[in-house]
Specification:
This is DUF1217 domain-containing protein. By secondary structure, the protein is mostly helical. The chain is built from ten helices and no strands. Among the domains are: 61 residues, no CATH class; 99 residues, no CATH class. Helix 2 packs parallel to helix 4 and helix 7 crosses helix 8. The relative contact order is 0.09.
Length: 268
């Protein structure tokens, strides 16, 4: 039976209260259906997908990468929950068929193939070193693509493990050095009891932590690197050019354009 809320039949005060309650409940249900996370973020969603799928050259690579990164973050943090079928198709098209989407997919496939090959020939140490080498051999922009997307993706809270690309690379380096040392020691039959450095590295290899910078620093310190990953400003190519064009600072100190990845800095 369908109850008409718009024209209730009120017999007495009690019936009136029931009718009013039914009307409020129906309104609440309708509101919950229309007021989804996606409906609240639809305008931003449309702007981001439009930026990603634009092929006119209106948007720079950096702008499209930022749009991709923001769109994926919205998806992971449930800000697109409740999207309709057409919007879902648009999301998939922007994520996979845009130039940035294709680049992300290609980079990921290339890295996976590289790591599989390295793992087969060199074990865990070979894979860890190959991961570092793969990253180091990327162009400046591709390094940023990898770091922003699958290399250090946002979690469900919208956070990343590393504050910047240098901390990310430091962790890659720490992982490679740790894996190489452990594998080499084991191949020579060295025991943790006879090698305190090996014992420390084995403990760090098994450690579970959310403080990746601290873990990285501890590993690198065992190899004589006492520098600690810290927050730094990552600049886009356009910003790098601006900084590079600035006049010398006081005392004759020149300001040079920052090059991503120039400072050793990750943990997988």
């Amino acid at each position: 039976m369908e109850i008409s809320v718009s024209q209730p039949t009120v017999v007495n005060a009690s019936d009136a209260k029931i009718s009013q309650s039914t009307s409020s409940a129906t309104a609440a249900v309708n509101q919950s259906v229309t007021d989804t996370a996606f409906s609240q973020n639809e305008n931003q969603f449309n702007e981001l997908t439009s930026t990603l799928l634009d092929t006119s050259g209106k948007f720079s690579q950096d702008e499209q990468l930022q749009a991709y990164t923001t769109l994926q973050k919205m998806a992971v943090t449930a800000q697109l929950r409740g999207m309709d079928a057409d919007s879902q198709k648009l999301y998939e098209k922007a994520s996979m068929q845009s130039e940035i989407g294709k680049k992300v997919s290609n980079l990921q496939q290339q890295e996976v193939q590289t790591l599989i090959s390295a793992q087969r020939s060199g074990g865990a140490a070979g894979a860890a070193q190959a991961k570092l080498n793969f990253f180091d051999n990327l162009s400046s922009f591709d390094k940023q693509v990898q770091f922003n997307t699958y290399g250090d993706p946002v979690n469900f809270s919208g956070n990343k493990r590393f504050a910047n690309i240098d901390d990310y690379r430091a962790n890659l380096s720490a992982n490679a050095q740790l894996a190489n040392y452990i594998q080499d020691a084991q191949s020579k039959g060295v025991s943790a009891g006879a090698d305190s450095k090996l014992a420390s590295l084995l403990k760090l290899a098994d450690a579970k932590t959310s403080d990746y910078n601290s873990w990285t620093a501890k590993v690198l310190s065992l190899f004589g690197n006492t520098s600690t990953p810290e927050d730094k400003l990552d600049l886009s190519p356009q910003a790098q050019k601006i900084v590079g064009d600035l006049p010398s600072g006081k005392g004759g100190t020149s300001l040079h354009a920052y090059q991503p990845g120039s400072i050793a800095s990750e943990r997988a």
